[in-house]
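Run log, item B.
One chain of 157 residues. Sequence copied directly from the ordering sheet:
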Amino acid sequence: MGLVEALFYILPGVFVVVGVLGVVKTLRRSSQISRTWRHGRTAEARCLRSYTRTSGGAGDTSVTTTLHHVYEFTTAEGRAVRFDEASGRSTVIEGDFVTVYYLPENPEGATANPPAQGKLAAGAGCTVAFFLVFILFALGFMGAAHFMFSAVGEFGP
C-alpha cells in the first residue's frame, strides 16, 4: 500500500471520527439540557454581558454570527455561578434578569433557554442526521477507494 492509497483511507477515517465525536457531543448536550429542564432547579440570573462571535467570511464563504450571553446567578446553596451561553434570545440585554435552569450537581451547565423539548429534539435530530450523512459519505468514499484500488491491483503487473 502506497502513501496515496493510505491517504484515501486515513482522511475519510478522520472524517468518520469527527462525525462520531459530533454525534456524541450533540446527544450529550441535548440530554443534559433536557435533564436540566425536567429535574433541575430554577434561579434568577442577571445578564452581565451580551456579545456576538463571527466565523467564516474567508474568500467566498458566508459569515455566521452567533449571539452569546454571560449570566450570573446564585444557587440554592449560596454559590455564585457565571456561565456563557450561545444562541440565546436576542431580546435579552445587559442588566436584564432571566430565569435559568440548572442541576445542583452541575450548575455550570445551566441554561437560560425556556423549556422547549420539541425544539430541542428537532434541533438535535437534524444535527445528528447531518453528522450521520457526513459519516456515511466518508465511509462510502473509503469503500469506493478500496474498490478502485482493488480493481487496479488485479490488472497491475
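Observations after the first pass:
- Helices lie at 3-39, 117-155.
- The first helix runs from residue 3 to 39.
Flagged for discussion on Thursday.
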